[in-house]
Amino acid sequence: MTASTVQVYPVIWNEDRVLLIDQNRLPTEYVLVEISRYEDMAVAIRTMIVRGAPAIGVAAAYGLYLGARDVQTQERDEFFAQLESIAQQLRQTRPTAVNLFWAISRMMRTAYESLGTVDEIKEILLNTAKRINAEDLQTCQAIGTHGLEALPQTPEKLTILTHCNAGALATAGYGTSLSVVRTAWHSGRLKRVYADETRPRLQGAKLTAWECVQEGIPVTLITDSMAAHCMKLGLIDAVIVGADRIASNGDTANKIGTYSLAIAAKAHNLPFFVAAPLSTVDFKLSDGSQIPIEERDPAEIYKIGETVICAAGTEFYNPAFDVTPAELITAILTEYGAVKPQELKDFQAKQIS
Ligand code: MRU
For the site Transition state stabilizer, which positions are given (predicted)? Predict the structure, then answer.
Protein backbone atom coordinates (compact mmCIF):
# COMPACT_ATOMS: atom_id res chain seq x y z
CA MET A 1 0.00 0.00 0.00
CA THR A 2 1.39 3.43 -0.83
CA ALA A 3 1.54 6.34 1.59
CA SER A 4 -1.23 8.15 -0.30
CA THR A 5 -3.80 5.44 0.40
CA VAL A 6 -6.65 6.80 2.51
CA GLN A 7 -7.81 4.33 5.15
CA VAL A 8 -11.54 3.95 5.69
CA TYR A 9 -12.66 1.44 8.33
CA PRO A 10 -16.47 1.09 8.53
CA VAL A 11 -16.40 -1.19 11.61
CA ILE A 12 -14.03 -0.27 14.46
CA TRP A 13 -13.64 -2.02 17.81
CA ASN A 14 -13.09 0.73 20.36
CA GLU A 15 -12.25 -0.43 23.93
CA ASP A 16 -15.64 -1.91 24.83
CA ARG A 17 -17.95 -1.02 21.95
CA VAL A 18 -18.14 -0.90 18.16
CA LEU A 19 -18.02 2.29 16.14
CA LEU A 20 -19.75 2.16 12.77
CA ILE A 21 -19.48 4.78 10.03
CA ASP A 22 -23.12 5.67 9.39
CA GLN A 23 -23.32 4.86 5.67
CA ASN A 24 -26.81 6.29 5.39
CA ARG A 25 -25.41 9.76 6.10
CA LEU A 26 -22.45 9.77 3.73
CA PRO A 27 -21.30 11.72 1.78
CA THR A 28 -22.86 14.80 3.36
CA GLU A 29 -22.00 13.83 6.95
CA TYR A 30 -19.28 11.58 8.39
CA VAL A 31 -20.78 10.28 11.64
CA LEU A 32 -19.66 7.40 13.86
CA VAL A 33 -22.45 5.47 15.60
CA GLU A 34 -21.63 3.73 18.90
CA ILE A 35 -22.97 0.18 19.27
CA SER A 36 -22.83 -1.55 22.68
CA ARG A 37 -25.76 -4.01 22.42
CA TYR A 38 -26.37 -6.79 19.93
CA GLU A 39 -29.95 -5.57 19.35
CA ASP A 40 -28.54 -2.24 18.12
CA MET A 41 -26.11 -4.07 15.85
CA ALA A 42 -29.02 -6.00 14.35
CA VAL A 43 -30.85 -2.72 13.67
CA ALA A 44 -27.67 -1.18 12.19
CA ILE A 45 -27.32 -4.08 9.74
CA ARG A 46 -31.02 -4.11 8.81
CA THR A 47 -31.19 -0.34 8.26
CA MET A 48 -27.88 -0.38 6.38
CA ILE A 49 -25.91 1.89 8.70
CA VAL A 50 -23.40 -0.85 7.97
CA ARG A 51 -23.77 -2.68 4.64
CA GLY A 52 -21.77 -4.59 2.05
CA ALA A 53 -21.30 -8.34 2.41
CA PRO A 54 -17.92 -8.61 4.22
CA ALA A 55 -18.64 -5.57 6.45
CA ILE A 56 -21.94 -7.13 7.52
CA GLY A 57 -20.02 -10.30 8.48
CA VAL A 58 -17.53 -8.36 10.59
CA ALA A 59 -20.31 -6.31 12.23
CA ALA A 60 -22.34 -9.44 13.03
CA ALA A 61 -19.30 -11.11 14.60
CA TYR A 62 -18.83 -8.16 16.97
CA GLY A 63 -22.60 -8.10 17.51
CA LEU A 64 -22.54 -11.71 18.63
CA TYR A 65 -19.77 -10.92 21.10
CA LEU A 66 -21.72 -7.90 22.45
CA GLY A 67 -24.70 -10.19 23.02
CA ALA A 68 -22.53 -12.88 24.67
CA ARG A 69 -20.96 -10.28 26.95
CA ASP A 70 -24.35 -9.41 28.43
CA VAL A 71 -25.41 -13.02 29.10
CA GLN A 72 -25.52 -13.29 32.89
CA THR A 73 -25.24 -17.03 33.55
CA GLN A 74 -22.02 -18.95 34.28
CA GLU A 75 -23.74 -22.20 33.33
CA ARG A 76 -22.48 -23.48 29.95
CA ASP A 77 -25.73 -24.97 28.54
CA GLU A 78 -27.77 -21.91 29.50
CA PHE A 79 -25.07 -19.65 28.01
CA PHE A 80 -25.19 -21.50 24.69
CA ALA A 81 -29.00 -21.45 24.62
CA GLN A 82 -28.91 -17.66 24.92
CA LEU A 83 -26.04 -17.36 22.44
CA GLU A 84 -27.99 -19.38 19.85
CA SER A 85 -30.93 -17.03 20.24
CA ILE A 86 -28.70 -13.96 19.74
CA ALA A 87 -27.09 -15.59 16.68
CA GLN A 88 -30.52 -16.30 15.24
CA GLN A 89 -31.63 -12.68 15.64
CA LEU A 90 -28.46 -11.47 13.88
CA ARG A 91 -28.97 -14.02 11.07
CA GLN A 92 -32.43 -12.58 10.40
CA THR A 93 -31.16 -9.09 9.56
CA ARG A 94 -30.33 -9.57 5.86
CA PRO A 95 -30.77 -12.77 3.84
CA THR A 96 -28.56 -12.57 0.75
CA ALA A 97 -24.95 -11.88 1.79
CA VAL A 98 -23.48 -15.22 2.84
CA ASN A 99 -20.71 -13.50 4.80
CA LEU A 100 -23.22 -12.76 7.57
CA PHE A 101 -23.98 -16.47 8.04
CA TRP A 102 -20.34 -17.46 7.51
CA ALA A 103 -19.08 -15.11 10.24
CA ILE A 104 -21.76 -16.16 12.74
CA SER A 105 -21.07 -19.86 12.06
CA ARG A 106 -17.36 -19.34 12.57
CA MET A 107 -17.99 -17.51 15.87
CA MET A 108 -20.37 -20.23 17.10
CA ARG A 109 -18.02 -23.05 16.09
CA THR A 110 -15.12 -21.41 17.94
CA ALA A 111 -17.28 -20.98 21.04
CA TYR A 112 -18.52 -24.60 20.99
CA GLU A 113 -14.98 -25.91 20.53
CA SER A 114 -13.78 -24.14 23.67
CA LEU A 115 -13.83 -26.21 26.84
CA GLY A 116 -13.28 -23.10 28.98
CA THR A 117 -15.56 -21.24 31.38
CA VAL A 118 -18.27 -18.89 30.14
CA ASP A 119 -15.97 -15.91 30.78
CA GLU A 120 -13.21 -17.57 28.78
CA ILE A 121 -15.63 -18.28 25.91
CA LYS A 122 -16.66 -14.61 25.89
CA GLU A 123 -13.00 -13.61 25.55
CA ILE A 124 -12.53 -16.14 22.73
CA LEU A 125 -15.55 -14.66 20.93
CA LEU A 126 -14.09 -11.15 21.08
CA ASN A 127 -10.73 -12.38 19.81
CA THR A 128 -12.41 -14.29 16.98
CA ALA A 129 -14.38 -11.21 15.91
CA LYS A 130 -11.14 -9.19 15.89
CA ARG A 131 -9.50 -11.93 13.83
CA ILE A 132 -12.36 -11.98 11.28
CA ASN A 133 -11.95 -8.21 11.00
CA ALA A 134 -8.16 -8.32 10.54
CA GLU A 135 -8.29 -11.26 8.10
CA ASP A 136 -10.85 -9.48 5.92
CA LEU A 137 -8.52 -6.51 5.59
CA GLN A 138 -5.65 -8.78 4.47
CA THR A 139 -7.98 -10.69 2.13
CA CYS A 140 -9.11 -7.46 0.47
CA GLN A 141 -5.54 -6.35 -0.11
CA ALA A 142 -4.70 -9.74 -1.65
CA ILE A 143 -7.75 -9.46 -3.94
CA GLY A 144 -6.33 -6.16 -5.21
CA THR A 145 -2.89 -7.63 -5.87
CA HIS A 146 -4.21 -10.70 -7.71
CA GLY A 147 -6.97 -8.76 -9.41
CA LEU A 148 -4.47 -6.37 -10.97
CA GLU A 149 -2.70 -9.33 -12.65
CA ALA A 150 -5.98 -10.46 -14.24
CA LEU A 151 -6.83 -7.11 -15.83
CA PRO A 152 -6.51 -6.67 -19.61
CA GLN A 153 -2.99 -5.67 -20.66
CA THR A 154 -4.27 -3.03 -23.08
CA PRO A 155 -4.84 -0.18 -22.97
CA GLU A 156 -2.05 0.65 -20.54
CA LYS A 157 -4.41 2.83 -18.47
CA LEU A 158 -7.86 1.33 -18.00
CA THR A 159 -11.26 2.84 -17.42
CA ILE A 160 -13.19 0.56 -15.08
CA LEU A 161 -16.93 0.59 -14.55
CA THR A 162 -18.25 -0.54 -11.16
CA HIS A 163 -21.67 -0.91 -9.61
CA CYS A 164 -22.94 -0.30 -6.07
CA ASN A 165 -20.17 -0.04 -3.47
CA ALA A 166 -17.73 -2.89 -3.00
CA GLY A 167 -15.15 -0.62 -1.45
CA ALA A 168 -13.58 -0.08 1.95
CA LEU A 169 -17.01 0.81 3.31
CA ALA A 170 -18.39 -2.60 2.29
CA THR A 171 -15.56 -4.60 3.90
CA ALA A 172 -13.21 -4.35 6.88
CA GLY A 173 -11.38 -1.77 4.73
CA TYR A 174 -9.89 -1.44 1.23
CA GLY A 175 -12.71 -3.26 -0.57
CA THR A 176 -13.06 -6.04 -3.14
CA SER A 177 -13.78 -4.49 -6.56
CA LEU A 178 -12.45 -1.16 -5.29
CA SER A 179 -9.36 -2.96 -3.98
CA VAL A 180 -8.56 -3.90 -7.58
CA VAL A 181 -9.32 -0.32 -8.61
CA ARG A 182 -7.09 1.09 -5.82
CA THR A 183 -4.24 -1.29 -6.65
CA ALA A 184 -4.53 -0.44 -10.35
CA TRP A 185 -4.50 3.27 -9.49
CA HIS A 186 -1.40 3.01 -7.32
CA SER A 187 0.31 0.91 -10.03
CA GLY A 188 -0.34 3.48 -12.75
CA ARG A 189 -2.80 1.19 -14.58
CA LEU A 190 -5.99 3.11 -13.94
CA LYS A 191 -7.22 6.08 -15.91
CA ARG A 192 -10.65 6.53 -14.35
CA VAL A 193 -13.57 4.85 -12.60
CA TYR A 194 -17.13 5.05 -13.89
CA ALA A 195 -19.49 4.60 -10.94
CA ASP A 196 -23.08 3.51 -11.57
CA GLU A 197 -25.32 5.49 -9.22
CA THR A 198 -27.07 2.21 -8.21
CA ARG A 199 -30.80 2.75 -7.83
CA PRO A 200 -32.60 2.69 -5.51
CA ARG A 201 -30.26 3.31 -2.57
CA LEU A 202 -27.53 5.06 -4.56
CA GLN A 203 -24.51 3.30 -3.04
CA GLY A 204 -22.52 4.12 -6.19
CA ALA A 205 -23.27 7.83 -6.04
CA LYS A 206 -23.09 8.21 -2.27
CA LEU A 207 -20.34 5.76 -1.29
CA THR A 208 -18.18 4.68 -4.26
CA ALA A 209 -17.79 8.20 -5.61
CA TRP A 210 -16.99 9.39 -2.05
CA GLU A 211 -14.29 6.74 -1.61
CA CYS A 212 -12.72 7.60 -4.97
CA VAL A 213 -12.73 11.33 -4.22
CA GLN A 214 -11.14 10.69 -0.79
CA GLU A 215 -8.28 8.92 -2.52
CA GLY A 216 -7.89 11.24 -5.49
CA ILE A 217 -9.03 8.56 -7.97
CA PRO A 218 -10.74 10.20 -10.98
CA VAL A 219 -14.41 9.16 -10.91
CA THR A 220 -17.31 9.81 -13.26
CA LEU A 221 -20.81 9.21 -11.93
CA ILE A 222 -23.44 7.87 -14.34
CA THR A 223 -26.97 6.61 -13.82
CA ASP A 224 -27.42 2.85 -14.17
CA SER A 225 -29.24 3.26 -17.48
CA MET A 226 -26.22 5.00 -19.04
CA ALA A 227 -23.83 2.06 -18.68
CA ALA A 228 -24.54 0.30 -22.00
CA HIS A 229 -24.34 3.63 -23.85
CA CYS A 230 -20.92 4.34 -22.31
CA MET A 231 -19.73 0.87 -23.35
CA LYS A 232 -20.92 1.45 -26.92
CA LEU A 233 -18.98 4.73 -27.06
CA GLY A 234 -15.80 2.85 -26.07
CA LEU A 235 -15.50 4.65 -22.75
CA ILE A 236 -15.18 1.46 -20.68
CA ASP A 237 -12.38 -1.16 -20.76
CA ALA A 238 -13.59 -3.55 -18.07
CA VAL A 239 -16.34 -4.00 -15.48
CA ILE A 240 -15.57 -5.07 -11.90
CA VAL A 241 -18.28 -5.67 -9.30
CA GLY A 242 -18.46 -7.29 -5.84
CA ALA A 243 -20.61 -10.22 -4.74
CA ASP A 244 -23.00 -11.04 -1.92
CA ARG A 245 -23.14 -14.76 -2.55
CA ILE A 246 -21.66 -17.00 -5.24
CA ALA A 247 -23.12 -20.47 -5.88
CA SER A 248 -20.69 -23.33 -6.47
CA ASN A 249 -21.28 -23.17 -10.25
CA GLY A 250 -20.18 -19.50 -10.26
CA ASP A 251 -23.62 -17.87 -10.54
CA THR A 252 -23.25 -14.62 -8.59
CA ALA A 253 -25.72 -12.57 -6.55
CA ASN A 254 -24.84 -8.91 -6.29
CA LYS A 255 -26.64 -5.58 -6.14
CA ILE A 256 -29.68 -5.27 -8.39
CA GLY A 257 -28.54 -4.04 -11.80
CA THR A 258 -25.40 -6.21 -11.89
CA TYR A 259 -27.02 -8.77 -14.22
CA SER A 260 -27.98 -6.19 -16.84
CA LEU A 261 -24.45 -4.78 -16.64
CA ALA A 262 -23.03 -8.26 -17.35
CA ILE A 263 -25.32 -8.64 -20.37
CA ALA A 264 -24.24 -5.23 -21.66
CA ALA A 265 -20.56 -6.11 -21.12
CA LYS A 266 -21.02 -9.34 -23.09
CA ALA A 267 -22.74 -7.45 -25.93
CA HIS A 268 -19.77 -5.08 -26.15
CA ASN A 269 -17.12 -7.79 -25.75
CA LEU A 270 -15.83 -6.34 -22.47
CA PRO A 271 -14.41 -8.41 -19.60
CA PHE A 272 -16.77 -8.69 -16.64
CA PHE A 273 -15.04 -9.48 -13.33
CA VAL A 274 -16.45 -10.34 -9.90
CA ALA A 275 -14.08 -9.52 -7.01
CA ALA A 276 -14.81 -11.45 -3.82
CA PRO A 277 -13.17 -13.47 -1.05
CA LEU A 278 -13.50 -17.23 -1.35
CA SER A 279 -15.73 -17.12 1.78
CA THR A 280 -18.41 -15.47 -0.41
CA VAL A 281 -18.80 -18.75 -2.30
CA ASP A 282 -21.61 -20.83 -0.82
CA PHE A 283 -20.53 -24.32 -1.84
CA LYS A 284 -23.77 -25.75 -0.43
CA LEU A 285 -25.69 -24.16 -3.32
CA SER A 286 -25.38 -25.81 -6.73
CA ASP A 287 -26.59 -22.78 -8.69
CA GLY A 288 -27.79 -19.21 -8.35
CA SER A 289 -31.51 -20.05 -8.30
CA GLN A 290 -31.00 -21.21 -4.68
CA ILE A 291 -29.67 -17.86 -3.46
CA PRO A 292 -32.25 -16.03 -1.30
CA ILE A 293 -32.92 -12.58 -2.72
CA GLU A 294 -33.78 -9.83 -0.25
CA GLU A 295 -36.81 -7.67 -1.01
CA ARG A 296 -36.74 -4.29 0.67
CA ASP A 297 -39.26 -1.63 1.61
CA PRO A 298 -41.01 -0.36 -1.57
CA ALA A 299 -40.61 3.18 -0.23
CA GLU A 300 -37.03 2.89 -1.53
CA ILE A 301 -38.44 3.05 -5.09
CA TYR A 302 -41.63 5.08 -4.80
CA LYS A 303 -40.00 7.99 -3.02
CA ILE A 304 -37.07 10.22 -3.83
CA GLY A 305 -36.18 11.85 -0.54
CA GLU A 306 -39.54 12.65 1.00
CA THR A 307 -41.30 13.05 -2.37
CA VAL A 308 -43.58 10.28 -3.66
CA ILE A 309 -42.83 9.91 -7.39
CA CYS A 310 -45.70 7.77 -8.69
CA ALA A 311 -49.47 7.63 -8.71
CA ALA A 312 -51.39 6.17 -5.78
CA GLY A 313 -52.49 2.67 -6.80
CA THR A 314 -49.15 1.75 -8.42
CA GLU A 315 -47.78 -1.61 -7.24
CA PHE A 316 -44.14 -2.25 -6.43
CA TYR A 317 -41.39 -4.86 -6.61
CA ASN A 318 -38.07 -4.01 -4.96
CA PRO A 319 -35.54 -6.89 -5.09
CA ALA A 320 -32.21 -5.72 -3.65
CA PHE A 321 -30.05 -8.21 -5.58
CA ASP A 322 -29.98 -10.15 -8.84
CA VAL A 323 -28.07 -13.20 -10.00
CA THR A 324 -25.60 -13.04 -12.87
CA PRO A 325 -25.16 -16.41 -14.61
CA ALA A 326 -21.62 -17.81 -14.48
CA GLU A 327 -21.27 -17.80 -18.29
CA LEU A 328 -21.34 -13.99 -18.29
CA ILE A 329 -18.45 -13.75 -15.80
CA THR A 330 -14.90 -13.60 -17.20
CA ALA A 331 -13.26 -14.47 -13.86
CA ILE A 332 -13.74 -14.26 -10.12
CA LEU A 333 -10.92 -12.30 -8.50
CA THR A 334 -10.19 -13.89 -5.12
CA GLU A 335 -7.48 -13.49 -2.48
CA TYR A 336 -5.77 -16.58 -3.99
CA GLY A 337 -5.90 -15.44 -7.60
CA ALA A 338 -8.31 -15.22 -10.51
CA VAL A 339 -10.48 -18.24 -11.24
CA LYS A 340 -12.99 -19.02 -13.96
CA PRO A 341 -16.43 -19.35 -12.31
CA GLN A 342 -16.81 -22.89 -13.66
CA GLU A 343 -13.57 -23.94 -11.89
CA LEU A 344 -14.43 -22.71 -8.38
CA LYS A 345 -14.77 -26.15 -6.78
CA ASP A 346 -11.34 -27.41 -7.94
CA PHE A 347 -9.81 -24.05 -7.09
CA GLN A 348 -11.11 -24.18 -3.53
CA ALA A 349 -9.94 -27.77 -3.08
CA LYS A 350 -6.45 -26.70 -4.16
CA GLN A 351 -6.36 -23.79 -1.66
CA ILE A 352 -7.30 -25.91 1.34
CA SER A 353 -5.13 -28.95 0.47
O1 MRU B 1 -27.31 -3.72 -0.18
P2 MRU B 1 -25.85 -3.54 0.01
O3 MRU B 1 -25.38 -2.14 -0.08
O4 MRU B 1 -25.34 -4.25 1.26
O5 MRU B 1 -25.22 -4.31 -1.24
C6 MRU B 1 -23.83 -4.36 -1.39
C7 MRU B 1 -23.40 -5.04 -2.62
O8 MRU B 1 -24.19 -5.49 -3.42
C9 MRU B 1 -21.92 -5.22 -2.80
O10 MRU B 1 -21.57 -5.22 -4.15
C11 MRU B 1 -21.52 -6.57 -2.20
O12 MRU B 1 -22.01 -6.70 -0.90
C13 MRU B 1 -20.06 -6.78 -2.20
S14 MRU B 1 -19.26 -5.80 -1.00
C15 MRU B 1 -17.61 -6.10 -1.07
Answer: 164
